[in-house]
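Shall we go through a protein fold together, starting from nothing but its sequence? Label the sequence line and the structure token line clearly, so we can match residues to local backbone shapes. Would you write everything just below, so we can both look at the same thing?
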Amino acid sequence: MIHRIKQMLWRQRRLVVMLPEHDAVRVGVYLDAYPIPSQIVSEHYTLDTAVTPRKGVKNAEQWAAFVDQHRENSWVIVLPHALTISQSITCEATTPDLIDQDLQKQAKKLSGLGQRKVILDHELLPSHQSDRSTYWVTYCQDDEIQQIIREHGIENVAICDVIGSHDACWSGIQYLRRPKGNWMLVEVLDEGTSLVVFEDHTPLLSHFYPMGHALAKERGQSAKGTYRLGEGSSSTVPKLSPLSSGIQSIGEAWAREMERTILEHGNREGRVSSSVERQLPCLLICEPGSRSDWTSQLQLHLGSSVLPFENWIHETSIGWKSKNLRQDGACMSTCKKSISLPSLLPEEVKQAWDQKQVDLALRSAALVACFLITVMLVVAFIQKSVLWDLKSDLLEQLDSVEAKVGKSLEVFDSLKEEYQMLRPLLMAEDQTVAVLKTLETLQSLSREDPGWMVLLADIDSYYSIGDQIQARALAEDTNSVPSSTTNRIVMDRGLVLEMVLDAKGEAMRRRLEETVAFFRQSDFILRADTLPGNARRSIVSSNVLLSDRHFAISLELPSVSDQVQAPTSNSRQEEPSWKRVQPAAVSTNTISAGGS
């Protein structure tokens, strides 16, 4: 599971290239790396359970384990030579749709196939003529592909492509050193010999010569299994044509057949004459399991009847490593690192592959979504942790502040209690200072202007004594009418000054205003104003008064009271301490006088 997740995250696509053989299979696992894919696994398995595998070959059980291990990877099947027909077709330039229709009609005319379904595909080749197009066409039977899938137990793997063996060789030689111009590639295999004629890197002709029954018997092998499509009987089980026994005979027969095929192709295409065709260089590839005497006889007869012997080129002389030539070519083509090849992938297998890609895309999207959600959750968890730590620190600081506020309130309460004890003394002291300053002011005023002060009393004494005198006078005079004594000015602390001015008319009025203004400018007086007649009290004897020049002035002193409430023992339990520390409202007393 972890390996698959890494593959999807880093997009390390793995490609399994499979070369099925009779009762055996060769596989290579490639990593789609940059710039070209690299092979990381190469194995050879035998599917014949009755035969003990030779050294380096694994058995059927190990093959089943390999299939299960690479079930999620992409697979490419390279069909054996005997199952495909590859050839070049030159026709008038037309649309690809018409070419497909013509090729389908030609596939239905192939003899020996009956009603079997044929799969074909084509690729456009370079053409020397502007009005004609050359196509490389590959045919195969659908039944053969399905049989390979069943016999090798790969029904549930993702098959992305099916390629012919000649086509895989064509792709594999694109980046290899090769002869110039026209040349032949002869590949000697266990099941037969393959011939491909190239023009530089473009195929012109391909042919396969299967191993016959007689040669198979002589070599101790089985000729059953794959067979080549082409002309033959219309029976459902075509038989291979018997060949002459002996390696020398089969070599001569194949040499003659190859010579005839090459000359026919040259005459049909009209590109080269037979004399020039005989000078084609021939590259010979021998499979490691092939018999050396077979290769020697084939090379000898082809060299003597078709080619000069010095034109033979062995793969090792030009640095080829043909062991994985077809596997490398199929992988390069599938990974879009080489030319495009005809695809023989059946429609139902292609649909399964497309569905596999859709599922892979959905799984990748789901994995990316899960990854993003996980990252978001981790980030949210980290943020939550940071906020939780910050909240804890703030709560600790709040507890510390509340503790400090509580101690401050305790100190404040104790100071307030001490202040309440000292408050009467402070008020008396302030009252004394105000009286002394008032007397000092009156003394300065008496020096400047004639007039005299007849009364100075605090507000409470002024009204209490005045009311008593008035009540006593009413009690002695039985004929008098009771008058109201409720008219008084309201102030917390203040003085009442009665004086007689030695002036008349406008001068007296101006002198009174100047006196009131002088008191208002004093720093120890909060407010000064003349006292209306209904708020006065008759305390001074009339012998010292001039009624038309007699005036009373109210002098309000600043209040010494505070607005702090009395301390309560349970205030801290009723509400938080920070709510109890509120700024006190400052009260302002105004002078009011009402008429009776």
About this structure: The mean pLDDT is 74.
